[in-house]
Specification:
CATH topology of the largest domain: polyphosphate kinase like
Largest sheet: 10 strands, mixed
Radius of gyration: 27 Å
Helix content: 25-40%
CATH superfamily of the largest domain: Polyphosphate kinase middle domain
Strand content: 15-25%
Mean pLDDT: 91
CATH class of the largest domain: Alpha Beta
Low-confidence stretches: 684-690
Number of domains: 3
CATH architecture of the largest domain: 2-Layer Sandwich
């Protein structure tokens, strides 16, 4: 038996946990269908990145694959098998959700279910609102097959003439500037029809110049390899290379073609031939509808019971109603926990220092920001007020390259100093540092976070951010900025863990420290909350720690290649995963250290790329109150038995429930805890440490 799981198969197991949320009847109906949208979006990215990489391994005959006893081609086949199986589960889940909707008087209908009045309404809607957005493309051998975009969904159209042996084919892109969901009302019923079916209803009008007998349309979509291919031309700037490579990505080789399994064989063959795709290799038969990522915006029909109850971000009582956030941080470290607490404090801090005459400089490194970023606007305001603003943009933030290119240009126009990450090493840390001069003395604060400076994702991503005036930490945060600004190749860090310089070594030392205590018969405990655990060296070190008697508790949201409870290898390790309303994204570590625990917040997952090939930052947490809060967060999540799954070697995704325990939904209980802080003393409901 292999001692680790394969990374790709473990990730697919994680995505199945997302389907489980769609299957869970305790989840409101619209939220269930939105989880299907999340699953679909996740899978698109998986194929564009991970499966594309497997395909490249197949081309060069590279079969060095961790956690899988076979070749790259065999792993590709296994991925396809799992995806097809999940596709069936997906379709069954979708049908079950539609049945549950019908019990509440809500129906998903197709063009075949319409009465005469509805047909007239939708034909009018099509001519008034839709027709101007569609571009039908006729397919024939006289012209090259059109270049299609993998972000879109298409209808493959087949027109059959009275002579049944004569066909004509076409492709019709489903517009993205119009809602995919159109609502109809009928007595006490609410009905929704997809734009796909409105187009099917109007096929005769769209192609009316052709004298066909019958016309039919079937949905398909495809996924391209999303790897950036950076030009080696040294005369081209890094900015221009990224810009050129993002454009070329749209021409990447197809790695997946998903189609309606009812599509006629001749139409399917014509499409595959035109796109140079082989049937059965990159193809996956599916249902009538694709691009379920659009279902993340599925309408709620004005029915509060169909969606989660609103949980607005709560105030942080250290920062609330303070005249100066900067001065509050100088007095005491602050921990922000999103989305439970307001992300707007970061924007407010930047707005404050932008107009503070004594603030001299602001430095920030950006991986992802929102399209309409208040963070970026606050920085431009700071430049306008004479501050020295330095922004490090990571231009290789996958699928956000264009947004970062845009904002970097805007900031340069305003006069900010803009730097970019390295071609071979992404800057993935989340840092902010502000310098202020008072009475000829320098005051400095820093923010070190686990998530991006992104107002929108902060509403749903569970992340942590430390605001601190700790002198030694501030000095080392400045060193990190110097690496990019001044081209410093390496530097010594004593406080921070900074990849690729000392993170791996420091984590090894911390694990070894627990092993030494265990061997002396003392209590030894490691608690890690992380998104992905893939790095084989660290997995082996955790196995060694387990054998030495160290108790290890891991909360891993996504990919986990470690297998717990293996005889004589990982019997002291437990691993759970939480998939719930909020996306678990925070990364932090706790090492018992013989009763004097050490705490770290981190931007890094335990993956080779994060430890050796990116700039990542982990910060120690020294404030005792914040340490207690981190303990509470971990203990709440470890106690959770409603949305927690056990991660085992068979990837069963079984819920971690016990008939003897009271239900404890960690995310909701955490919200209640933070809510109680805003009303006075927190309720005394301290979870038992398991």
């Amino acid at each position: 038996m292999l001692s680790t799981l394969n990374r790709e198969l473990s990730w697919l197991s994680f995505n199945e946990r997302v389907i489980q949320e769609a299957m869970d009847t305790s989840v409101p109906l619209v939220e269930r269908i939105r989880f299907l949208g999340i699953y679909s979006n996740n899978l698109d990215e998986f194929f564009r990145v991970r499966v594309a990489n497997i395909r490249r391994m197949m081309l060069i005959n590279n079969n060095d694959i961790e956690g899988f006893d076979g070749t790259a081609a065999e792993l590709f086949d296994e991925i396809r098998r799992v995806v097809v199986e999940q596709q069936r589960l997906f379709e069954r889940t979708y049908k079950k959700i539609l049945v549950d909707f019908s019990k509440h008087g809500v129906y998903h209908i197709t063009e075949k279910d319409l009465n005469e009045e509805q047909v007239l309404e939708l034909k009018t809607y099509f001519h008034d609102k839709v027709r101007h957005s569609i571009v039908p493309i006729i397919l024939d051998k006289k012209h090259p097959f059109p270049r299609l975009r993998d972000y879109r969904i298409y209808l493959g159209v087949k027109m059959t003439y009275s002579d049944s042996k004569k066909f004509r084919y076409a492709v019709l892109s489903i517009p993205t500037d119009i809602s995919r969901f159109h609502l109809l009302k009928e007595e006490n019923k609410q009905k929704v029809i997809l734009l796909d079916d409105i187009l099917r209803l109007n096929l005769f009008d769209i192609f009316n110049i052709f004298n066909f007998e019958t016309i039919e349309a079937y949905t398909f979509k495809f996924t391209r390899d999303a790897e950036l291919d950076l030009d080696d031309d040294i005369s081209i700037s890094f900015f221009d290379k990224i810009e050129k490579s993002v454009k070329n990505r749209k021409k990447g080789a197809p790695v997946r073609f998903v189609y309606d399994k009812e599509m006629p064989a001749d139409l399917l063959a014509y499409l595959l031939n035109g796109m140079n795709i082989k049937l059965g290799v990159n193809t996956i038969p599916g249902g009538t509808y694709h691009n379920f990522k659009d279902f993340r915006k599925f309408p709620d029909f004005g029915r509060p019971e169909f969606v989660y109850q609103a949980l607005p971000p709560l105030p942080n009582m250290q920062l609330e109603q303070q005249r100066s956030i900067f001065k509050t941080i100088l007095a005491k470290d602050v921990l922000l926990h999103f989305p439970y607490q307001r992300f707007s404090y970061i924007v407010d801090l930047l707005r404050e220092v932008a107009i503070d005459p004594k603030v001299s400089s602001i430095k920030i490194n950006v991986y992802r920001v929102s399209y309409n970023s208040q963070i970026m606007n606050a920085l431009m305001n700071a430049v306008s007020n004479g501050k020295e603003v330095t922004v490090i943009f990571e231009l290789q933030a996958r699928f956000d390259e264009e947004n970062n290119l845009y904002w970097s240009e805007r900031l340069k126009e305003y006069g900010a100093k803009v730097f970019y990450g390295f071609p071979t090493m992404k800057v993935h840390s989340k840092l902010l540092q502000i310098k202020r001069l008072k009475d000829k003395k320098t005051e400095v604060i820093s923010y070190i976070g686990t998530g991006n400076f992104h107002e929108q994702t902060a509403k749903v991503y569970g992340d942590l951010g430390l605001l601190t005036a700790h002198t030694a930490i501030n000095k080392e945060v400045k060193k990190v900025f110097d690496i990019v600004e001044k081209g410093v190749n390496s530097t010594n860090f004593k406080e921070l863990m900074v990849s690729p310089y000392n993170t791996r070594r420091k984590i090894f030392t911390l694990i070894q420290n627990e092993m030494n205590f265990a061997k002396k018969g003392k209590a030894a405990l490691i608690q890690i909350k992380i998104n992905n655990l893939v790095d084989m060296q660290l997995i082996k070190k955790l196995y060694s720690a387990s054998r030495a008697g160290v108790k290890i508790e891991l909360i891993v949201r996504g990919t986990c290649c470690l297998i717990h409870n293996l005889p004589k290898k990982s019997e002291n390790i437990q691993v759970i995963s939480i998939v719930d309303r909020f996306l678990e994204h925070a990364r932090f570590m706790r090492f018992e250290n013989n009763g004097d625990p050490q705490y770290y917040l981190s931007s890094a997952d335990w993956m080779e790329r994060n430890l050796d090939k990116r700039i990542e930052v982990s910060t120690p947490v020294y404030d005792r109150d914040i340490q207690k809060e981190l303990d509470l967060i971990f203990n709440y999540q470890w106690r959770g038995n409603v949305k927690s799954r056990i991660l085992d070697g068979e990837m069963k995704n079984e819920y971690r429930r016990s008939e003897f325990d009271e239900p404890f939904r960690a995310q909701f209980e955490l919200y209640k805890y933070y809510e109680s802080l805003t009303k006075g003393k927190p309720k005394k409901k301290k979870p038992t440490v398991i």
